[in-house]
Amino acid sequence: MKIVTYNVNGLRPRISQFGSLLKFLASLDSDIICIQETKLSRHELTADVVMADGYESFFSCTRTNGKGRVGYSGVATFCRVKSAFSSTEAALPIAAEEGFTGLLEKPGGFGTGKDEIPVKAGGLEEFSKDELLKVDSEGRCIITDHGHFVLFNIYGPRADTEDAERNQFKETFFQILQKRWETLQQQGRRIVVVGDLNIAPAAIDRCDAPPDFEKNEFRRWFRSMLVECGGPFFDVFRAKHPDRIEAYTCWSQSTGAEEFNYGSRIDHILSSGSCLHQDHCLLDHNLFTCHVKECDILIQFKRWKPGNKPRWKGGRSIKLEGSDHVPVWMSLMDIPDVVQHNTPSLSARYVPTVRGFQQTIASVLMKRQKAEQVETFEVSSSFSDENVTKQSSQVCCISRDFPSSSLQPEGVIPRRDVPSICSINNSFDKTMIASVIRHTKSTSGMVTKKKAKQSQSSGSQLSLKSFFQKSSNLKDGVDNAGTESSLDQADELKSSEDPSETSAGNDGSKSTKMVEMDVSASNQEQCVIDSGSSPKSKSDANNVALVEWQRIQQIMQNSIPLCKGHGEPCVARVAKKAGPNHGRRFYVCARAEGPASNPETNCGYFKWAASKSRHR
What we know:
- This protein is an alpha+beta fold.
- It has helices spanning 11-18, 21-28, 47-50, 129-135, 164-186, 217-224, 236-240, 287-291, 352-355, 361-401, 426-440, 445-458, 490-496, 512-532, 535-559; strands spanning 2-7, 32-36, 55-60, 75-80, 95-98, 141-145, 150-155, 191-196, 234-235, 250-251, 263-264, 267-272, 292-297, 328-332, 571-574, 585-588, 605-608, 613-615.
- Helix 11 (426-440) runs antiparallel to helix 12 (445-458).
- The longest helix is centred in the middle third of the chain and has 41 residues, at 361-401.
């Protein structure tokens, strides 16, 4: 059996990098794959990120709404199995738990009638419920029971030295975790802990370890858990490779430290408990010595490969694909099968966004009621359309059967040279009819807007001036849409209307002649704009802009200092640390961070943007 742990720095980017979730998992070639920092929330657990053929998956996502914690952290365990049901494979968990306090909700799975009631895990009685829920709210642990051992997939919290609140959170997190381990060990269970614990235990595990490096409280706690300090756990990698130096699993993204392997070892695999042999009286027999075959770091997953060009130089123009961590793997031997069992209810196959939501009788009735309302609305809309058609035909009949002078709407000056409504061009006819009907029936406004939108989309491009023209309101209540026909219909108006004809409206309405004048002015405006944007003028404008931008860049370049170590332009940074210099600009050497003994690495040059230079 092969187990691998990997901080992916976002699961979706890794899936995109490899093409699919299945290809990503296949690249790790392991029976149990534990990943950290998925950066997924519960509603983002869709089939493309949780389901892969031949794998069962178990997720824990952040539940807190705290600042900077939404969509942050998250862990997942993928188990490669032949079958998820009636299986005897040890890779398929017998049970699974989200978090490690026992208080998180346990969703009911296939065949369960209700959710399980959360119960505080044994050994945690000294902690309050609020403390337990707080450490379990950031999606930092998934526990899977594989029969022969209990596997903890952990993403340990990170805390800056100056951040007292996060340091307290981190301390409480590991205190509760240790209590849970002790309870399981008292029950005789074997434990395997994997993940990014955010702790480099010793100076050999850090590139730039200062003299007091190992005095840190979390490093002292970590070492106290190891066998060599009287603890129950083996640091599997260090136990297999006690003298290997520069064996790092994580590198800073902001300094390009990966180029010179200037990192730390914070991704671990720990093991505790007896071996699986029947004779338990044999000395020096335990899970590590009897069943751990090998453990190593998958360096081939590093983003920076030898010969990468261009060199880092500040990192602004270089995008390396992959995580800032690399996987660590362990192979186990002589692991027998377990009793026949099914996948636990925590499996991602039962997540509602994957499996679907169960419908209740009330939800079905609500959907039926909404469907009836929609059907009623469609029927009423069809009646409205019929009314519009009937009224339109009636208006046309009136215009044909009676003289225009005898049946004029009130307030319109009769003219003998005004043609009937039906003789007007089709585009203006629709607008005119819609305006008259809208005066008597408000629901036809939607029809007018729809026709105006259709005519606009099918016509020519509007001129710039058309967006600033004001249309007159008809005092009798006729909507502006009646006279605000799109200017792309102007040609039709000119060809079918008499220049002296007036539209149906009051004294405030526009005459056709005025419309023609506006269209003419708009066309002239368009011609002016088109003539001003000829290819030659555009090219000249682009050249002027280019020259100006080059001038600005040159000024900026001249103001950037050169580092003392290499005589190269520095890169600008902004201080983000809280304090008197927060937000202040400074310059540093642009090269990647590395050991001081290497002249090719960052020389350490530092200068405030408006102050005397100094070395850090």
